[in-house]
From TrEMBL:
Name listed for the protein in its UniProt record: Putative transcriptional regulator
Region forming the signal peptide: none
Gene Ontology MF term list: ATP binding; ATP hydrolysis activity
Keyword Nucleotide-binding attributed: yes
Biological process terms in GO annotation: negative regulation of cell division; phosphorelay signal transduction system
Organism expressing this protein natively: Brevibacillus brevis (strain 47 / JCM 6285 / NBRC 100599)
Classification via Gene3D superfamilies: 3.40.50.2300, P-loop containing nucleotide triphosphate hydrolases (3.40.50.300)
InterPro entries: AAA_dom (IPR025669), CheY-like_superfamily (IPR011006), P-loop_NTPase (IPR027417), ParA/MinD_ATPase (IPR050625), Sig_transdc_resp-reg_receiver (IPR001789)
Keyword Nucleotide-binding carried by entry: yes
Length: 467
């Protein structure tokens, strides 16, 4: 059975072209076209489409339009077709549960997406060949509506949009520079902050998959952990693939990867995998207990975990990373709104940060997201912060944060008591508070500034990353 597609677009020529291209499609029947909103409503009613392609209608906002349509027709799936200068909206659309494809539209892309939706009562069919192309080109897209999901996605997604969320990745291309210490302190700092009178919901994630110690630095148990989630994801994927009429044991790893990209996420279940820090209520997603378990964690697991975290109702997601350039680390960098790049004022640490900055600049990574933080500064250092700034070729306006070398730090790690929870003047604690305030300004005006910056995000980063 073909999926019925309604094309909503005020560009007559492109509608005509697409209709012509789909005329012999085995998978799709264009059941109508609408050049304006009124017409779209009428045809939604009369033609009962399964799928709506939102090209663009002057003067309307597609996210809003989709939400309105969905209220009246909750079973509908939506595809937003974006030109290259509209691709900055991709994360926004994806948050709303729209699929996103790039213009010019390849009919095969729509066919492939159409095959991923399964209208009730319809038996799954094999997706056409182009499927793989869609996923790789368009980064993640997932159906807005899966028959297996009981509550409408809109319910859980609408409130998320209005609340700014920050994913902060703490990174540093050298071991022992203070990443885990700074992650822990920032996480505790944020969990003690309020936004409009409501305490922030904070989760810390240990992305040192093999040798993570975040839990230890807070005296927390390590069960459940990230691997518990990974096993559940695989179980969900198995049944998802079976639901599509396929045998999970006989599909290729590429197909597996593609199904993973389309797996419906369940941000409401994250709490099953976290441990709570008793004193602050901070949630921690700890790394696996056994190194061997970390070997079983694949890119798509991490991708699904990060996507789910992004859709969760945590206000701050803080990721501690390993000093490497594995996929876990790179994904954590590219998912982040802010990166705290940690180093020590020693030449090897500085050299590696410089190399990392070079790589990120080549990838057109938005440098405004990176905050450089020099940890363990002593009263007299061989390099001044100005010299380091010059070496990194930072803009003169860019502040380098510094955290002093402080005897209290070691004690606090050994006892599992964050400096943030200790009273009295602790220089390292004050420095981390300064960093935290710069990362997540709760003041209204600054918040808007942070939002603006988010919209500038370049989606091509993922393409650069995974070709
Ligand atoms: N500001 C600081 N002052 C004194 N010691 C510090 C400071 N920051 C980190 N340390 C010490 O460095 C050690 C390594 O820090 P850690 O956060 O585990 O580094 P990383 O996560 O980068 O490998 C800690 O155990 C702590 O004793
Ligand atoms: Mg560490």
């Amino acid at each position: 059975m073909k999926r019925r597609l309604l094309i909503v677009d005020d560009d007559r020529d492109s509608v005509r072209l697409l209709k012509a291209q789909l005329i012999n499609s085995r998978w799709i029947e264009v059941c109508g076209e609408a050049l304006g909103v009124e017409e779209a409503w009428a045809k939604l009613q009369a033609n009962q489409p399964h799928l709506v392609l939102l090209g663009g209608i002057k003067g309307t906002e597609r996210g809003v339009l989709c939400q309105q349509f969905r209220l009246a027709f909750p079973h509908l799936s939506f595809i937003a077709a974006c030109s290259s200068n509209e691709l900055m909206w991709e994360p926004f659309f994806r948050n709303l549960g729209l699929w996103v494809i790039a213009k010019p539209i390849e009919p095969g892309q729509i066919e492939a997406l159409a095959m991923m939706i399964q209208p009730p009562g319809m038996v799954a069919e094999a997706a056409p060949q182009q499927h793989q192309y869609v996923i790789q080109e368009q980064t993640r897209s997932y159906p807005s509506q899966q028959p297996s999901i009981s509550e409408p996605i809109t319910d859980s997604l609408v409130p998320e949009m209005t609340r700014p969320k920050q994913l902060i990745t703490v990174y540093g291309p050298k071991g022992g520079v203070g990443k885990t210490f700074i992650s822990r302190e920032l996480a505790i700092f944020f969990s003690m902050q309020k936004n409009e009178g409501v305490p922030l919901r904070v989760i810390a994630v240990d992305f040192n998959l093999d040798l993570g110690t975040f839990a230890t630095t807070l005296n927390l148990p390590r069960t459940p952990n990230l691997f518990t989630w990974v096993k559940d994801l695989d179980a969900q994927l198995h049944s998802f693939i079976q639901d599509q009429g396929k045998d999970p044991y006989s599909i290729s790893s590429e197909e597996w990867q593609e199904y993973a990209q389309a797996l419906p996420l369940s941000p409401q279940h994250i709490e099953k995998y976290v441990v709570a820090h008793p004193d602050t209520g901070l949630h921690v997603l700890t790394s696996p207990r056994d190194i061997r378990q970390s070997f079983e964690i694949r890119d798509y697991h991490l991708y699904l975990i990060l996507e789910t975290l992004k859709q969760s109702n945590y206000d701050v997601i803080l990721i501690d990373t390993a000093p490497d350039t594995t996929d876990a680390t790179i994904q954590a960098l590219f998912f982040a709104e802010h990166v705290v790049m940690v180093g020590n004022p020693v030449v090897d640490s500085i050299e590696n940060i410089q190399r990392l900055l070079k790589l990120l600049r080549e990838a057109e990574y938005p440098e405004e997201r990176i905050q450089i933080c020099m940890n363990r500064l002593q009263r007299k250092e061989m390099f001044t912060l100005d010299e380091i700034r010059a070496y990194f070729q930072l803009l003169p306006s860019k502040k380098i944060f510094s955290i002093p070398d402080d005897v209290e730090v070691k004690k606090s790690i050994n006892t599992g008591t964050p400096v943030m929870l200790q009273s009295g003047r602790i220089p390292a604690k004050e420095a981390i508070e300064t960093l935290g305030k710069a990362l997540f300004p709760v003041d209204g005006e600054q918040m808007k500034a942070a939002e603006k910056e988010k919209q500038k995000e370049k989606t091509s980063l993922f393409k650069w990353l995974w070709g």
